[in-house]
Amino acid sequence: MSTKKKRSAHTKSDSWVVIAPDSMLHTGSSEDSDPAFTKLRNPATEGSSLYLFGRGDDSVYEVKAFTEEFRSWFIKQTVQRDGKLLIVTPIDPLFLLLPYIKSAATEGKFQPLKQMVMDEVYPGCTRLLQCKQGLDFIHHVADEKEVGSLKFHRYNQEKTMDWLKKKVQRTVTTLKKSNVSVGGGVKSSTFVRVKQEADAREEDYLRYAHGLISEYISEDLSKDLLKHLQLPEISSPKETEPPSKKRKLSDKPVEAGEDYTKFNSSDFARKPPKKMTAAQKTLAKVDKTGMKSMASFFKPFTNTFE
Amino acid sequence: MSANSCVTSVRLDSIKQADKPQVHLLPCEIEHDGPAEVSAFFTPTMKERKHEVSVSFRGRGMKGHELNCPQGYTGLVLKEVQKPASDQEDRIVKVSSVFHNFTYWNLETPPTSDDGVVRAMEWPMLAEAIHGPVDK
């Protein structure tokens, strides 16, 4: 512990500060169920993360926590010791449905979605089938067959890659308009941002966007996407670090009793390639910190309400 | 039944009764949850000069900056209505407060756009790019 004075133990908080989209707050029809925080399988880590279903389950949101050490809130005339800020943002339900659809593909046959999207550990996943942006867009990741009034689906890797590529392109467009630094401006792990560099290259944007999208897909898909984007795999300069340190760097939620390292997407870039040019090495350095710095601010949540 | 099947629902109708408090994010951990005389001892010492607010708190000078919630977003304080008896139960929270801006405070260092909490406010814009629907 770095603190000189011993801090008293945290008691369980019963109050949370949240930034939430207005779409979640629309009261809508009174018959609809209230918004609900639910644990679902994280598509990148396969561990547990917290999500939120909007009213009537028509949309789903991700819950990220912004935490800094030594922060507390004043709210009107009260102190809230826990200085955490939760940020609720929309998540594309296809990201959450994809692992189910993909794993059902091993049989290679068309199946009803209801049959694919089932999970004993996370029964809440069936609510994803109510989300508009899920069902209406399923053709982005699967072939569709209609027999009478019934619809059947089968995972399609090519379509999925095209869909993910479009996601990356959308993200690149937004990054270019924003003042998020994707390239050489990001140098230190403590994150000191230098103003957007004019020479941030297209590849820097692509890699950064790929890193952001990879937070929502499996390691395998992330690698496939890299190929689809025609970006070579690069290794990280942190290769030589001991495994224990690697784990600490990870911003993925940790599930006890699960081999999470296997699914940890931040590990995939660390395999040494045969040869690296000096330029690639520099890029590897820049890139890794760039992706990390954004991701490390926001920890996908495992146990918010504790 | 596993704990993963439990949900925490947000009682949205409570938003009508929610208050609109002043909210401050402090650069220190206060080992207390509960009432405090913020308006008697904290707010009156706030001084505004140009774009910077400063305050003296327990003899320490702090510099602050008012942050708006990102466009299309609202700040909420959620409060648990009733403590559950076990972790196998559904839980209910209500919206006890609503806010559209808050002041974050730094110890000594003047607030800049590189501060973590400022950057956190950029996340919704990025999330929209990552998660918005892709055309047919």
- Regarding CATH, which class of chain B? Mainly Beta
The unreliable regions of chain A are 184-196, 238-276, 281-293
| CATH architecture label of chain B | Beta Barrel
- Topology as H/E string of chain B? EEEHEEEEEEHH
Indicate the proportion of strand residues of chain A: 15-25%
Structural class of chain B, by secondary structure, is mainly beta
Helical fraction of chain A: 25-40%
Number of helices of chain A: 9
State the major sheet of chain B: 5 strands, mixed
Tally the beta strands of chain A.
Answer: 10
Protein name (chain A): Ribonuclease H2 subunit B
Family (chain A): Belongs to the RNase H2 subunit B family.
Region (Disordered) (chain A): 232-278
Biased composition (Basic and acidic residues) (chain A): 236-261
Structure commentary:
Chain A: Residues 30-92 form the Rnh202 triple barrel domain. Chain A: One of its GO terms (biological process) is RNA catabolic process. Chain A: Pfam families: RNase_H2-Ydr279, Ydr279_N. Chain A: Keywords: Nucleus. The complex is a heterodimer of chains A (306) and B (136). Chain A has helices at 22-25, 93-104, 113-116, 132-135, 157-177, 202-214, 219-228, 243-249, 278-297; strands at residues 15-21, 36-41, 48-53, 60-66, 72-75, 78-80, 85-90, 142-147, 150-155, 298-300. Chain A has 306 residues and is α+β, with helices and mostly antiparallel strands. In chain A, strands 1, 2, 3, 4, 7 and 10 form a six-stranded mixed β-sheet that branches. A two-stranded antiparallel ribbon of chain A has the order 5-6. In chain A, a hairpin with a 2-residue loop joins β5 (72-75) and β6. Chain B is built from three helices and nine strands, in the order βββαββββββαα. With 136 residues, chain B is mainly beta. Chain B is 13% helix and 39% strand.
